[in-house]
Design goal:
51 residues; mainly alpha; two-stranded antiparallel sheet; 35% helix
């Protein structure tokens, strides 16, 4: 994954049928460019792990 904005991440997650919990958390991300997945991890600590 290359650089992505909050809106592009939301669009991709929605088109990939992501769980509602993930979509809700992505909506709370600061509106900026995320250069890599590593930059997202601090914001995704509350994402429940699917079992």
């Amino acid at each position: 994954m290359g650089p992505a904005t909050r809106d592009s991440l939301l669009a991709y997650a929605a088109s990939s049928h992501a769980r509602p919990e993930l979509l809700t958390i992505l909506q709370t991300l600061p509106d900026r460019v995320y250069p890599s997945m590593r930059d997202l991890w601090p914001h995704l600590a509350e994402v429940p792990v699917q079992q």
